[in-house]
Every structure is written in structure tokens, then in C-alpha cells.
Amino acid sequence: MSATVSEQGSAAGAARKASTSLHWLEPYALILPAMAVLAFFFAGPAIYSIALSFQQVSLFDLGKPNAWVGFDNFVVVLSGAGLGAAFFNTAVMQTFVTVLLRLVFGLALAILLNADVFRRWHLGWLVRSLVLVPFVIPPVVAVAAWKWLLDPRYGAVNQLLISVGAIERGIPFLSRTSTVWGAVETMLIWRELPFVVITFLAALQSIPKELKESARIDGASEFQIHMRIVLPMLKPVIAVVALLTTIWTFNNFVYVWLATRGGPGDYTQVLATKMYTVSFVDYRVGEGAAIGVLMSVIMFVFALAYLTILARQNKGKG
Amino acid sequence: MATLSTRQTRLHFARDLATVIFGLFILLLLAFPFIWVVLISFRPDREIFTRTFRLITSVTLDNYYALLENSPFPNYLVNSAIVCSISTVAAVIISLVAAYGFSRNRSFKGRGVLLMLVICTQLFPFVILITPLYSLFLHLGLIDNPVSLVISYTAMNLPFAIYLLLGYLDTIPQDLDEAAKLDGASTLQIIFKVILPIAWPGLVTVAVNAFVSAWDEFLFALTLMTSDEKKTVPVGLAGFFGEYTTQWNLVMTASVITTLPTLILFMFLQRKLVSDLAAGAVKR
Amino acid sequence: MIKMRIASTMLAASVATLSTLMLSDNALSQEKIELVFRQFDPPTEIAGLIAAVDAWNSSHPNVQVKLQTMTGGDTLAQLAREVPAGAGPDVQQLAFVWTRDLAKSKLLLDLDPLIKSAAPGAGINDFLAVDLAKLDGKVFGVPWTADTFSMAYRPDLLQAAGIEGFPDNWQALADVAKKLTSGDQYGFCFPAGSSPDSGMWILANYYLWSNGATLVNQDGSGKWTVSVTPEQLTQTIDYFNKFFVDATAPENLITVNAWGDPELVGGLGRGDCAITFFPPQTFRAAGKQSEKPLLTAPIPQGSAKRVSHLGGRALGINPNSKHQKEAWEFVQYLTGPETFKTYNQYPAQKSLLSKLEFPAAEQGYVAMLPVAQTFERYISSPIPVSSMTALINREFGAVFSGQREPEEAASIIIKELNDLLARGKG
To answer: Do C150-310+372-425 and C26-140+311-360 have the same topology in CATH?
Structure first.
């Protein structure tokens, strides 16, 4: 028996020695398929995008060579009226608020749905399936459904509020500047929350039950368990989700576009809708590309800072 | 272990019940808009609007007949299903391998740069990228060919998938890898035989996101698939919105039909959200 | 292992697809010609068109036409990608206002030679709005269908409120709207949304034009200037804002952009609105949804005249088309009387229109079509009409939602129009 094991051991050792010389190649080989696909798909078009931002191009002349105008497009964009407001809307109203709320509610809901009782009562399947419902609805339908729910005359929300006497007449949520962002944020969070929830649900699975059990036996309350054990172990996943949802939300176009088109007036205009309008309504694709480049630069700087801080924190832990 | 008194049992039951009720309530709130869409799809065109909030009005299957029998919509469903399934599987596999590479090798040359490059692909708005990509696919002869969409969706989903799996794999201890290496397993074998079974929850998350993103994707499907038979669901849906009229009853019905396969697929997949890791696979 | 299996399946699938595509392509080019015709109306609106195309296909076994549908907004960008790359449909449905821009960028074929060889209909001059389809005197699109807007209303509701006839001018409309507003019923509903494509643009221009104003104008020396005065703009904004101030229009309309929105289309039938304004197709859809009959009436007149805009669709041919002659034959067929037997749109030809029997309910359009004017007055300017539209809609929406006063919005509009003019020259 022991002879076989040592034989196996030395055989494995020999195999390892043979592959050590090429071992350094391994990470590159593993990453290669992904990088190849990404390079094929993004490299050329990304350069094209950046080049476009330095040209004056009309939508109708996209396929042809066009005049180079240096930084003109950037100057026009940065000095244009409404850019500051669009940036504020994008960064704060659309991104910061919804990412924060999604992280908080998502984590809370995931912890709730991870409770053992659902497994014991055989409701796990129901709970995990129901949570996905908003996510499987196409955005155009989700926004349409919400627009009707919020309709001042026919919408369920207003009708319920009226029936409990909270208001007298239906509130046209999307028509008023006081409520329109709340409505758009609600639509966004509603549809995107499930993804955060199942990501956290999945991550919660990687926490060994014994850890929680032993803490419980030691007398720790559920709250303490979650704060001291669960949350720290989830940090890598929370960090990744926060970064990805921030970038994705910052660039997001559909919710504002479908719900309000940036209105009323341009109250809910965000950078992505501005880019779309400049490119496809004003036909100034070069300028639109410049807005796109600016958005990319902002997010690049953010991602860089974020990842650097994260790496430093991880190094500190040792 | 001391036996629980009846009072403690009842307290535990009360707490359990409260948790379940609260959880289900929140979920029903989340699901309500969809339930409402389903209800509307069964209403005749005229009754889509009601002055007072009524859950049930008259029920008709007209909308479903119109959609399933008289329109090319079932084709769109098939097209979408094929393209999205293939691209999701491809994205999951490629990203798993890449994420493993990043996760288990923390100091190879260029790691930081490559990771940043992956993120960088997320920064570009597709609305601008689509034009050169159209030319690229045209030169490859792939316009109106579903292969172009499969490639596109795989590429679009990879960055998110890689980062998500990276974060997830980082929470899986490397003891299992070591053990398998000692047994002489190759890296690919480790990934697919050892890590994959444990990483199901992460994989399900990535698959769900990839599938839904591909399923809802509009711009590329519109640009790359030009003939009517090759259209996908979002493009088909958009076709109901006209300059003069919009067929909202058909839109609602189409949405219900669209989401059902996805929902059923996930009801199967969600079992895998519970992993074996917690069952003590790790012995320190 | 799984990876390899999947990879090889994918490879096989793509090879199979590619070869089928190539084979089928070969087969077609040997025997018959296939034309691709792209249009942008939703399937429920084109039953008659599909019937006409099917009729062509059965009588032309060697020239088969394949109908493609792509939403209007996306069509322009798609053409801009496809045509320079050497692709694109043979025949394309166009909005009137697109033709010249597309022609300028060489995305459409010059039709003069084809028109000379085989004149369409009763000759090109029988067609409406040919001016919009011309660039440097050459025709790049054949006007196909025409439409305009007229007022639409519930005669029973007006009768119940004791209103005789239909308000003839704008002030009368505002007054009548007040009488018609009570309880859940509003007097006048219109798309007041801020979207770049909102219908507010149309209504605003009707008001301006009927009062003798226009946004931009070319003076004798050919120079373009902003010709609308701040007072005229302020008056226009004020007029429509008053409907919200007086609550004779529901506040929710600030979010309604499309004239085909269910709020408006169904609103008449449900009695939410007594009066609104529609193009013909939308009016017919509203009629289907209403139990009570609906009627149309002419647009109210202003101090100068009664006017509406002449809109519609044209047909263009792709410069890349390998079968220009056959495409032109198909275009002639589409603009011919056979097609209009089943295709439920107004033909854009005077001779055909004069023979058309308008339903009793559509008399409003009968009144407006002769006085309708195209957007040519803006299209020949250096400013893209879509930018003007977006600007007007945005500022009007800002006033409606209380973000600005009408005077402020008017001065912003004029300033930005001047900026656009200055930039357009560059």
C-alpha cells in the first residue's frame, strides 16, 4: 500500500517537474480564449470609437472618411449647456443612489432568503425563482408596466393611495420634477435588484455552516453573526458587485430613455441619453463619440482608483 | 443537546413563520408588476385600462391566438433561444477558465494590466461600437447569420462574467486545488472536475446574467439580423411600436410568452444556487 | 472535454450555416431575381401592403420581392452603415423628411434616368411633396403615401356640453375645452411630451404657421435667419401651457410623446378626452377602440390661415442595388392604383386622391390635405429638422412642468436656433 502511494507520489512529482518549465505559461493559456474573443470584438471598434471623437462626422456619412477636428468636439461638449446637470443626474441620481440601495436591499433580501426555514419548509425553489421575476422581463416591458402602474388615473399605485386616503387625486409621477427621479430609480432598482440578490445568495453559500453554528452556540446573536462573520467573508463579492453595477449603471441608457426620454424638459437627462440624442437626433456622431470617450475616461479613473484601493486593503490583510 | 421546551418550539415556529411570510410578501411585491402584465395579456384590447383597480376583468385568449398563430413571433422565440443558449454556455466556460487563471495565479506578469483591460471593454457604449462591428461582420460574410450574434453576446458577457467569477472563486479556498494537484490532476481537470461542482452558485449567477443580457439585447440583433425570419425577440417586440399605433395588448402578451421559457429555465437552474461547499467539503 | 465538444459543434454549425447561405445565394441568382423591400410600419398596420406584395409575387415569378420590417428610428442609422459598406435593401420606405439628407450623403439612387425611361403614375409632377424629394433638382425618392393631421373628437360629448359645431379658431378651441372639462373628462388632449420625437412639435408649428410665423426663413440673398420673434414663441408656449394651467388637459400628457399613445388613442373612446388630434391611421385605430362614433374636424385657424403639415412616406432605391430596373418597376407598382386597393393609406398623387372616396368620419382630412404644407421650409435650412424638433419639445416640456417661464423658454429657443444656424454652416 505505502509503496504504491510513494510510487504515485514520485510519479506525480516527476510529472510536476516536467511541467514546471512551462508552468509560467499556464495563466496566459487559461486567459487566452477570453482575451482572444475580447480583442477581436472590442479592440478595433474601441479604437474606431476614439478616432471618431476627433472627427466631425454626420450620422449619414459614417462609413466614409471624414474631417479631423482635433479636440473641437470635446470643447463643444464640455462647454455645452446641460452637461453639468447631465453629469450630476448620471453620477448621483442614476448611479450612486441606485447602486447604494441595490447593495443594501440586495444584501438584506439575500440574507433573508438564505434563512434555513425556507430550506426546511421546502420553499427554497419558490423563493429563488420568484426573486428572478423582475429580471427576466425585457426592459421595454418592465418600464411600460411601471408607467401604467404609476398612471394617475388607471395605475394601481395611485388607485391604492387614493383608496387609503393618502392622496385625493392621482399623482402623475413622471410629469413632475419632484417625483420623476424617484419613479425612474424605482424602475431601475426593481428590475436590477434580483441580479444583486442572487449574486449575494450564491456568495452566501460559500460560508460554511459550521462557522455560523459555532458562533450561535457561543451565544452570538444573528445580527452579530452577520456583521462579524458573514459580511467580512462576502467582502470580495460585494466589492466586485459594487464596481460592476456602478460602471454598468453609469453607462445605462434604457431606463431613462424608455421612461421619460430625458424629460420633462431635460430634467432626467443623463450622459448616455445625451450621447444618444447628439448622435442620432442631431446627427453629430463625432460629438456623440466624444461624450462616450468622456464617460469612459471617468469610469476608467473610477475603476482604477477603486481597484487600487481594494488591492491595498487586501495586501494589508496579508 | 438539551431538548427544547414546548414554548421554545412555538417561539421558533413563530419566528420561522414570520420570516416566511415577510419573505414571501416582499417577493410578491417584487413580482407584482409581472403578475399585472400577465393579467393584462388576458384582457381584450378595450379593457386594458380600467378606472378602478380591478384584478380580474373579462378573460380572453384572443391576444395569444393573434400572437402565436398569425405572427412570426414563435420564430423569434426560437431564434432568441438558440443564440442566447449557445452564447451563454460559451461565455460561462470561457470566463470560468479565465477567472480561474486570474484567481489562482496572483503574480504573473501583466496580471493587473490584463484585468484592467477586461474592465476597459465595459467602458465603451455599444451604440458607437456597432458601426465598425457591422463592417467587420459584413466582411466576414456573417451578416444575417446567427453566428455573428453568438460571438457578439459571448464577447459582451465575458467581462462581467470574468470579474464575477473571479470574486467568487476568490472565496473558494485553494486547499481543494492543492489536493487535486497532489493526485496528479491537470489544471483543466481541476477546473472542471473539482472547482466546477463547488462553484455552481457562481456559475448560475453568471449564466443568468449572460442569458438575460443576451435575451434582452436589441441593438446588435437589429443591426446584424436584417431579414424578418432571423429576428430575435426584442427586435420583434419593437416591431409592435409603430408611428401611428402601438399594439399594447400584443406587447403584453408577447412579454408573457417571452419570459415564461426563461423563468422555467431558471426554476431548474436555481437548485444549483445551493452549493455543496457548506456541507463540509473543506476540512482544515 | 465538454469544451471541445461544444467548440466542434459550434464550428460545424457555423460551417453548415455559412455553406447553406452561399448555396442558396447561388441558386437564386441563376434563376430569378430577389428584391428586398424594407419598410417600417408594424405588422398590424400593413396587412394591405402584404397583400399587394403577395399579388406582385404571384404575377412576377422571376422577380420576387421579400418584405423586411425595421422600425423607422433605426432605419436611418442602419442605412448609414449598410450602404457605404455595399449592402442594404433594394427598395426602402422613407419618411418624406429623410430623403434629401440621405441623398446628400449618397445613400439613395438618383431616380431621374429611371423616371425619364418610365414615368411613375401620371407623371412625376402629379405627386405631392416632390420638392422634399429633390436634391439639386434631381429626384431621389418617389412620394408614396401622404398624411396630415386633423382634430378628432367625440360628437356626443360636444353635444352633451351644448356645443354647436366644432371650434373654428384656436381661442374657440381653448374656450370649448373649458366647457368640456368636468369630472374625469378633459377638454383637449395632445402629446405634450419632451421627447425628441414628440408630437408637440407638430401642434406647435400648426399654431405658429397659422398665425403667420415660422421658425427659420431664408431671405432674398439666400441667408438663413431665425424669423420667429420672442413674442410669437411666447404666445405659442403660453397658449398650450394654458391647457395645463386651466386643467383642461390632464397633467399626465407631459409624459405622452406619441400621437398613437394609448392615452390619446383610447382616451377618446373612454371619454377621458373630448378632443384630440390624429393622423388618419391613428384615427382609424381610435375608432376601433371606441364604442361611440368619432369624427374629424379641420385644424383651428389662426390669424393668418388654416394650415397643417403634409407628411408621408416615399420610396427610394439603393445605389448598391443590382437590379435597378426591376426595383423601379416594383416602385411603380407600389405607387399604382392596384396597391392602394388594399393598402389603407392616402396615395401621394393628386389624380389618385381626387378619385378617393373618403369615409364620412374622415372629412377633417379632406379639408386639410389641400392646405397642408410640407416641412420643406425647414428642411432646406442648414439645421437638421430633428434638432429643431428636439429643441422645441424640450423647451415646451420644461414650461409645462414648471421648470421655466414661457418668456425664458422662448429666448432659449431663439438663442439655440441661432447657434444651430451658425454651426450648420460650418
So the answer is: yes
